[in-house]
């Protein structure tokens, strides 16, 4: 476990409501410098909502977000926005831009240095996207969009990367590249919050995991802690209701 | 699946249609229908002024209304509905059962709408003119209108099916609908001018001004019966606007082919500040490439030009200020729509995440809209003024006045109806604004036409009243939506990516 001085982001009692539905019921966790935090949970657990709030896209309804020891509002704190980067799950972008234009859009919007643009173009080549540089994004597949968005996320040279299911639609080759880039970024001192429900990926790259279910954090710890008890999959299903899951599987089998 | 089950399925579909919960397009259709209902109601009121056999009158007019409505309503929802084909055709259902159910549904659908429209007509006649239309005439009107219009509509669709050998070619149907709609509009605009028979009927029975008033698109025609370019333009305008609306929401948005080597707009942006530059690039890209944004922008701009050219043809050179200001203020509404409606609205998170406060994003968006939409149009209006013979010293004055007002209106619109540019909230607000625009565009001049008919005002005066009222209604009729900093507008409907 990293020391508290390395704590870069702290989420305290975070709450979010969608009308009467309580999507987040007081979520607490911390993100440390140079770590990859796996944010794990079943569908509808509140992962995307948390990341939308941390990404400044959605306002919170309660709780605090502490950035370098100071409370912050991600929707309005421009310094926070500059130092964080967000990749949403559905890879939606302004799709009438060409790749070149969206790179320029980010370059100007985040006031980046010229060399960051070069980094972006080189990464595009690595992902095999450079031949589509003058093509409008709307004609891309979801995998291509995710790769492009990953390049844009990294391009801004953030201190914190908030990644929501970044590998969901990528091909095997790109998955390996992204995984290695994430590990490399971690080694360079970047903090990464990696949300996914794919346990295998989380097991391979994350230092710590936070497990969320029905808007509440139900477990938090290092992977070695968890592995002492069981495999991550077993641990996850235990926490999120193994009995119920087995019952559902049996019911489905009987129906067929 | 039995016939009954299929009908139940359609019944659900129909119920949802009436509740307007299915698609924006269908909600728009309901609004269009309501407009026709009001026109029908006004027509009932007019019985007081026109001495004519009510049954024949109602028959002719409601036939026209229904026919036009049938096209706009797009019976293809029920005839060409792909979804039900995919679902039902896989099930063990005989073709005969399928088509019988569908035909029954179309018939039910048609009779319900005709009944509602005619009821408005009869109630209007009874309440305000104290005319009781005999039940047998009502029933005759109802049945004749329903069967004839349904048969006519179905004949056209069937013809299209045979010609195009495809049941899924929605675009062709839409195009034919538009062509027929415009044709009807033009026939009604030309008919009083060109047909001596109608002219005679009119002069003999209809108190001179009848056709001008009851048909919204001919109400500006002067009583002199001379060929009037203005009336034709107005007629076209009235037809284009609602049809354009149907098209806007009707066609598929996505193009399948990849567009390679698109020319970048970077070089056209002269703003130095980098953050502002990025927003300008976003606006410029959208207004030139997004299909739905382009449609939002181009069609009303063309309509605006029609109004401008009407002024060129008119002999009233004194109205230079009115037309200069009107045309530019209208552009502010168009610019607002163009900056709101985008098919990439799910990407609004990019602007929310960007290191820029919302206010600056909107302010820069307005500036970009002003720079790339309003200013070029202002320049165009200036040239028109010069061609019209307005002196070079006088022409810029209404333009400048209009530009200032336009900028003010754009700001006002974004305050009254706040949303992020090209966001989902913007999309929803924009579409709802178009609806209001269409409804007010039809309703207000119709009311003004009636007013003119009753009080014998000069055409030009009530044209001004109509346009002024239309603008005021459009701007202030809207509900103020609270901006919650995220998806915008309505919290229950707006979903964030992945949420």
Q: Would you mind describing this structure in some detail?
A:
The complex is a heterodimer of chains A (256) and B (499). Chain A is an alpha/beta fold and 256 residues long. Chain A has a single domain, classed as P-loop containing nucleotide triphosphate hydrolases (Rossmann fold). Helices cover 41% and strands 26% of the residues of chain A. Chain A has helices spanning 47-54, 78-83, 99-109, 114-126, 142-155, 172-187, 199-205, 223-229, 232-239, 242-255; strands spanning 7-18, 21-32, 36-40, 62-67, 70-72, 84-87, 160-164, 191-196, 208-213, 216-222. A 6-stranded mixed sheet of chain A has the order 6-7-8-3-9-10, with helices on both faces. Chain A has a 4-stranded antiparallel sheet with strand order 2-1-4-5, covered by helices on one side. The longest helix of chain A is centred in the last third of the chain and has 16 residues, at 172-187. The radius of gyration of chain A is 19 Å and the shape is globular. Chain B is mainly α. Helices cover 73% and strands 0% of the residues of chain B. Chains A and B meet through helix 1, helix 2 and helix 3 of A and helix 12 and helix 15 of B.
Write the SSE topology.
The complex is a heterodimer of chains A (256) and B (499).
Chain A: E1 7-18, E2 21-32, E3 36-40, H1 47-54, E4 62-67, E5 70-72, H2 78-83, E6 84-87, H3 99-109, H4 114-126, H5 142-155, E7 160-164, H6 172-187, E8 191-196, H7 199-205, E9 208-213, E10 216-222, H8 223-229, H9 232-239, H10 242-255
Parallel strand pairs in A: 3-8, 3-9, 6-7, 7-8
Antiparallel strand pairs in A: 1-2, 1-4, 4-5, 9-10
Chain B: H1 3-19, H2 24-45, H3 54-73, H4 76-79, H5 82-88, H6 95-129, H7 135-164, H8 170-194, H9 196-205, H10 210-214, H11 229-250, H12 274-289, H13 291-313, H14 320-340, H15 349-353, H16 358-387, H17 396-416, H18 424-455, H19 459-476
Helix pairs in contact in B: 1-6, 2-3, 2-6, 2-11, 2-18, 3-6, 3-7, 6-7, 8-9, 8-11, 11-13, 11-18, 12-13, 12-16, 13-14, 14-16, 14-17, 14-18, 16-17, 18-19
